[in-house]
Amino acid sequence: MNLIAKSLVGASFAAILAGPALAQTWDMPTPYPDANFHTVNIRQFAEDVSAATNGALTITVHSNGSLIRHPEIRRTVRAGTVPIGEVLISLAANENPLYGLDSVPFLATSYEDAFALYQAQKPALEEALAGEGLTLLFSVPWPPQGIYAKNEITRIEDLQGLRFRTYNPGTGRIAEISGATPVQVEVADLPTAFATGRVEATITSTSTGVNSTFWDFVDYYHDTQAWLPRNMVFVNTAAFEALDEATRAAIREAAAAAEERGWQLSQEDNAKSRAILEENGINVIEPSEELRAGFAAIGEQIAGEWAEQMGPTGTEILERFRAR
Ligand code: PCA
Questions:
Q1: Residues near ligand 1 with C-beta < 6 Å?
Q2: Domain 3-89+133-140+231-271 falls in which CATH fold?
Q3: Which of 11, 18, 222, 223 is 20 to 30 Å from the Cα of 80, by its Cα?
Q4: pTM of the complete model
Q5: Which CATH architecture has domain 146-227+274-322?
Q6: Contact, 134 vs 77, CB < 8 A?
Q7: Domains 3-89+133-140+231-271 and 146-227+274-322 share a fold
Q8: What is the DSSP letter of 98?
Q9: What percent of the chain is predicted at pLDDT more than 90?
Q10: Is 265 strand, coil or helix?
């Protein structure tokens, strides 16, 4: 080896010895595809953390359930197998009804109300997560939820007997009450589920409809604007507290920016996605009065069930929300 090569090897060894003592990489599983605005937002968050810490902490995003499938992400972060992740909060509503609040139909149907509901829920949400050894970093909503189907749904009864794709306990409950057959399917599996006929209708956002090219499978989108379910990005508290103060501050700052950007991105993506659905031949329609009324009644039933399961904590949250 010549002198230059030797000194290069020497220099990189020195870098390895000096660097890794400080530098860390965090693997971050997320459930949704790369093109989705939540994923785009999270990648920006990861870049911000890396830049703010001068590379001391690199977050590697594994999207679309590629590292860990969505239903396992919360458990895996709790166990500390991975330090950070993203989930749909309401996926865990069976374990704690608090997590299902954002998916109560017609409780909060605009971005403004969804934000107020988030603020009303936040202290309880953070407390529940703390009890699991988890720390909330930020939370961003999906666009308002509407019904996709092959044929027009003019009243709730039209859902009877349809294989209705669900994504959380709340959507499962809607299917049950309306006499549809609930089939739980993750976004990553949606195209196959529709293509094979395992499911034939669902309720979700314009964004997911575009990400999953729903025009290949259905012809109608009923713009019911029923609720805005939220995702959250959260960390294993022990892993977070093991970081030095400057790194924790960098994460907190990037998280606050991601939350603000995410609420904006969600609204922009909703408008764009709605146009893309139409361009691709989906009939984007207003729900009929009958469908509206039938769905509202289901919403009231689910809201009642939620309040009953939650007890006084639920009442407090709803009172805070109603005082908005
Ligand atoms: N998309 C996700 C959750 C809500 C949404 O709009 C889904 O369909 O699973």
A1: 88, 142, 167, 187, 204-205, 208, 229
A2: D-Maltodextrin-Binding Protein; domain 2 (3.40.190)
A3: 18
A4: 0.93
A5: 3-Layer(aba) Sandwich (3.40)
A6: yes
A7: yes
A8: G
A9: 93
A10: helix
With bands split at pLDDT 50, 70 and 90, how would you rate the model's confidence at 19?
very low
Residue 13 in tokens: 């060894």
- Cβ neighbors of 193 (< 8 A, separation 6 or more) are 165, 183, 185, 199
Ligand 1 pocket test target in 64, 139, 208 with most atoms within 8 Å of CB: 208
Which atom from ligand 1 is nearest to the alpha carbon of 32?
2
Confidence of residue 2 (pLDDT cuts 50, 70, 90): low
Distance 116 CA to ligand 1 centre (A): 21
- Packing angle of the helix pair 312-322, 111-130 (nearest 10 deg): 150
Q: What is the pLDDT of residues 195-204, one digit of tens each?
A: 999 999 999 9
Alpha-carbon gap, residue 166 to 150, rounded angstroms: 16
Q: Which residue has the higher pLDDT, 152 or 18?
A: 152
Residue 272 is inside which H or E element, if any? helix 245-279
pLDDT tens readout for residues 66-97: 999 999 999 999 999 999 999 999 999 999 99
Quick one: which of 161, 143, 155, 154 has its CA closest to 203?
143
Residue having the nearest C-alpha atom to atom 6 of ligand 1: 205
Structure-token match 């929300």, residue found: 321
Contact 198, 181 (CB under 8 A): no
For residue 248, the CA-to-ligand 1 centroid distance in Å is 30
Give the largest Cα separation in the chain, rounded.
83
Which atom of ligand 1 is least distant from the CA of 145? Answer: 6
Q: In the chain, where are the structural domains located? A: 3-89+133-140+231-271, 146-227+274-322
**What pLDDT does residue 10 have?**
47
pLDDT of 4 higher than 90: no
Instruction: Report which DSSP code applies to 83.
Output: S
